[in-house]
Write a sequence for this structure.
């Protein structure tokens, strides 16, 4: 029985009008105190988060480049139009979506397997959990360099270790064309962040009631049936959180691409494109427009993922 | 013994904490004030942002420090593009912490055009013009004025394995063409090592190929974004044909599309090493690691793009700029004069292998012990013929656009020059993203 049904099955306690009024007064007062307590944090948040976003929105309406300060001009939404009709923008968005979908899908499967191992393991539990979590503790840039060296045609081990595969030889240049380079980038990303996925799934897994699993077992359900009919449906909120976090994280991918290909072989992501406009080209106007578009895309993605999983977030937070 | 009241017991550690915090604040304040006031002796401290090297610029900074000022160095990132970004962003923010800076030649015009470089006095300009190689002066000139002081100049030559050239029957005492070396390497199991990763080094190669066929990447650059883009020309087509020829030949190293100066040197040092175009530092590159390669190391003028037409080797180097926003412009200008004196160019060359920007710098005695006379002669001959990259404030856009359309080398076709011209024009006018 799920937590939701358990709550619904409880008999409703009759409440007097005065009691409701009293609770309401108290909750209003608590609410007010809560607002006062969080007010400083809200101000700080607005300063550090909203202000740069508003500044980006404002800058995006200008033709503005740092090294031609006299050429600055207000051009309304022209930067957005330039971006949206540029094939490079759509190509890089496509790359980003491919990286996001593939890495999150693979990480979900491997991460779940790791979560099961961490959940069920009875011997050397600490050691196994540490081993699984180590990649996540490594700085992304460091892991990207490691994988770049691993796939390097000059001194990498991938070509020699996997030379027995028909499509890999000592001369395989992984960073010499689009899809092999994308593959190397995705391998690096998956290796680095699968532990994070498995941590989130482990939290969900530990919340699934053992009684329900036992009951299903007694009813004669096979391992697969218990997984599909009992464990996974009860982890829906945890899976959604894992997919949401990792999906949005993967959509912002930058470090791996910067280190491994510098965007060569058309492996750029949306955030890499934004970086190049703002930092390399010093185009504050175009770059700001790109960052606003990136922000909006992330918002839409988050909304889509929440809708897709049909999870009531209030319920997931344990609220009534 | 009488115990103090509980309230006092509670208050004492609190007061101690407050006193400690006040003392810490005072200490931090004093440290900040000391840092702001420089050395505290009234002697100015000039900060010189240098590109990473083997200590040459730090030694020159030490040599040029005087009783009036001390020159200290801060190291910029390794990559030329990243050096430009850091300098441009700091200068745009009017950072007075930069007094002197080492600037890669193609970005000199951009910083000057934005007004970030203090104008050089006319007599200093005259001295520099007289002492520097023509290519060095051209690379530091914007709108008819020398805007930065050439410090060191570098050029690429053709390095080859003497044994391989002999086996292939190539007469290296005469000028050779790209077609000849690609064919000789391909026919005899050798490689031609170049720089073709998606970075500035690849544009250096493209520029040299186009210039070698008598063309230019761009002209009329004072028109800013309306400059004439000349990549789509017979010279551009010949350059594209050579890139394609190498990329589709067995002489292409397997890491061609990700090769840089370092990997090219490694390819040349491998068993398939035959030819390589690379900077002058190669002369000492194999001294300790691969003495057998050093013994077999031959050198010649950069290959010709078109047979019979003088090759135009790449030009690189460093110009010294003085920041407009420095609090010590006069002292920094005096320091720049000292830094770019031929003797100091020689000191830098001795320590780093980055050759002087003036013929007089080559007279520095210790250099003659490291480089045999024919090598020195070749470097200077090559510098005289060198073709700097187009001097324009929009070089980073042009360079980035070339990389977008010419990379990877295997994708270069006869249509590439035309498509890159259109793309560069669109990027310059803000019609396309780069």
């Amino acid at each position: 029985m799920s937590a939701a049904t358990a709550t619904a099955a409880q008999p409703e306690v009759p409440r007097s009008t005065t009691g409701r009024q009293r609770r309401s007064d108290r909750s209003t007062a608590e609410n007010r105190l809560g607002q006062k307590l969080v007010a400083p944090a809200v101000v700080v948040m607005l300063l550090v988060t909203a202000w740069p976003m508003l500044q980006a929105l404002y800058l995006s309406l200008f033709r503005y480049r740092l090294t031609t300060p006299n050429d600055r001009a207000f051009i309304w939404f022209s930067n957005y139009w330039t971006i949206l009709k540029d094939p490079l923008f759509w190509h890089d968005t496509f790359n980003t979506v491919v990286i996001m979908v593939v890495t999150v899908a693979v990480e979900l499967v491997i991460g779940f397997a790791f979560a099961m191992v961490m959940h069920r393991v009875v011997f050397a539990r600490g050691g196994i959990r540490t081993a699984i979590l180590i990649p996540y503790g490594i700085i992304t840039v460091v892991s990207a360099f490691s994988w770049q060296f691993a796939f390097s045609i000059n001194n990498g081990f991938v070509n020699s270790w996997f030379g027995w595969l028909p499509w890999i030889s000592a001369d395989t240049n992984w960073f010499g064309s689009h899809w092999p380079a994308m593959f190397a980038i995705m391998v690096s990303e998956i290796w680095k962040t699968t532990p994070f996925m498995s941590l989130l799934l482990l939290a969900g897994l530990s919340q699934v009631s053992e009684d329900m699993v036992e009951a299903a077992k007694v009813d004669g359900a096979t391992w697969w049936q218990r997984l599909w009919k009992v464990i996974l449906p009860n982890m829906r909120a945890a899976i959604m959180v894992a997919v949401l976090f990792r999906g949005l994280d993967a959509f912002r991918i930058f470090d791996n691409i910067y280190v491994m290909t510098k965007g060569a072989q058309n492996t750029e992501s949306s955030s890499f494109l934004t970086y190049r406009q703002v930092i390399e080209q010093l185009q504050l106007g175009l770059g700001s427009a790109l960052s606003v578009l990136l922000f909006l895309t992330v918002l839409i993605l988050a909304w889509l993922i929440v809708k897709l999983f049909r999870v009531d977030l209030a319920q997931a937070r344990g609220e009534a | 013994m009488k115990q103090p009241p509980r309230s006092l017991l509670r208050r004492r550690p609190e007061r101690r904490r407050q006193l400690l915090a006040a003392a810490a604040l005072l200490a931090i304040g004093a440290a900040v004030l000391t840092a702001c006031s420089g050395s505290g002796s009234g002697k100015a401290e000039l900060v010189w942002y240098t590109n990473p090297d083997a200590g040459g610029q730090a030694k020159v900074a030490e040599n040029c420090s005087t009783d009036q000022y001390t020159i200290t160095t801060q190291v910029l990132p390794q990559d030329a593009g990243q050096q430009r970004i850091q300098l441009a962003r700091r200068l745009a923010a009017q950072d007075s912490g930069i007094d002197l800076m080492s600037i890669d030649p193609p970005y000199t015009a951009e910083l000057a055009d934005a007004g970030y470089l203090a104008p050089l006095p006319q007599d200093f300009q005259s001295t520099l013009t007289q002492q520097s190689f023509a290519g060095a002066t051209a690379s530091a000139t914007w709108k008819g004025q020398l805007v930065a002081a050439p410090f060191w100049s570098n050029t690429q030559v053709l390095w080859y394995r003497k044994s391989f050239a002999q086996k292939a029957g190539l007469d290296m005492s005469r000028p050779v063409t790209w077609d000849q070396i690609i064919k000789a390497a391909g026919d005899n199991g050798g490689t031609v090592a170049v720089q073709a990763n998606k970075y500035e080094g690849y544009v250096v190669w493209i520029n040299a190929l186009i210039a070698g066929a008598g063309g230019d990447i761009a002209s009329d650059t004072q028109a800013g974004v309306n400059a004439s883009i000349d990549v789509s020309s017979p010279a551009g087509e010949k350059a594209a044909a050579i890139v394609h020829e190498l990329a589709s030949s067995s002489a292409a190293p397997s890491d061609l599309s990700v090769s840089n100066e370092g990997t090219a040197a490694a390819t040349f040092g491998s068993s398939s090493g035959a030819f390589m175009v690379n900077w002058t530092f190669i002369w000492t590159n194999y001294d300790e690691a691969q003495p057998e390669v050093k013994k077999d190391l031959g050198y010649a003028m950069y290959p010709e793009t078109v047979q019979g037409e003088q090759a135009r080797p790449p030009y690189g180097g460093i110009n010294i700029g003085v920041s407009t926003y420095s609090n010590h412009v006069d002292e920094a200008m005096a320091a720049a004069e000292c830094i770019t004196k031929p003797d100091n160019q020689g000191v830098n060359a001795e320590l780093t292998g980055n050759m002087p920007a003036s013929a007089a710098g080559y007279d520095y005695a210790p250099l003659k012990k490291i480089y045999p006379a024919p090598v020195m002669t070749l470097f200077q001959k090559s510098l005289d013929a060198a073709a700097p990259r187009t001097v324009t404030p929009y070089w980073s856009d042009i360079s980035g656009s070339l990389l977008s359309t010419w990379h990877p080398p295997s994708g270069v076709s006869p249509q590439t020059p035309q498509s890159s011209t259109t793309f560069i024009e669109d990027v310059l006018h803000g019609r396309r993203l780069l």
User: Anything to note?
Assistant: Chain B touches chain A through 31 residues (CB under 8 Å). Chain B has two domains: 13-153+317-380, 155-314+392-428.
